[in-house]
Amino acid sequence: MTAFAHVDHPTQHPGVVRAERLAHNAMELTRRIDGARANASLLLAAIVAALLVAANQVIDTWTEGHLLAAWIVMWVVAFGALALMATPARSMSVRVREGLARWNKARKMAADDERLWQVALTDARVMADISHAMSAGASRDLRSYF
Question: In terms of pTM, does the model score above 0.70?
Answer without folding.
Answer: no
